[in-house]
Write the structure tokens for this entry.
Amino acid sequence: MRLLFGARSRLHDPHGIVLFTDGWLPYESLFPAVFGRPYQPQRQGKRGRFPKLQYRIPRTSGHVRIIKTYQGKRVVDIRIERAAGSQRRVNQELASLGYNTPNTSAVERHNGTARRMNPHQVRRSLAFARLPHVRQTVSDLVNGVYNFCRVNRSLRVKLDEPVGRRQYAQRTPAMAIGITDTVWSVLRLLGTVVLPNPCRS
């Protein structure tokens, strides 16, 4: 729940999200409570308690579950289930992302990269970070280095005119979304003052 509420707090429009998750069942019940609009149903009669608070899913939102079936360690079947929202809205989001079918590849890649760069997140690791603020600090550093200091091959763009043998301009994720126009050094990243309020996009 903290993960979903944290994501909501960073969204400019929390009612315009289409969420792709794995098959963990609690996501289905948490999505309306986090991204829906609450309303109070009318009670039957004039006495007694009011019904529990209910949530309406806006037409601009959607939730798709990607449910994987395993045999041992192998995935033998993948079932896609639309838990909330319209198929039209889901298709619109897929088109904007460049996907043909719903998937969780983006978050899986993010988690895989985080575990590779941060040994504290690896399972059965000898790197220990027992204090929560240590884990948070290391995670923030890894995210900063990945987004500002490391070029990503999939984000490169072709140059209008080749420079010697170089035909592509390498970019970091921060350059791809227009936050900066240069690849940062780790020294510059560590020397940058971070505002206390989170950036809302």
Summary: Residues 2-40+52-103 form one domain. The longest helix spans residues 132-149. The CA atoms of residues 25 and 65 lie 9 Å apart.
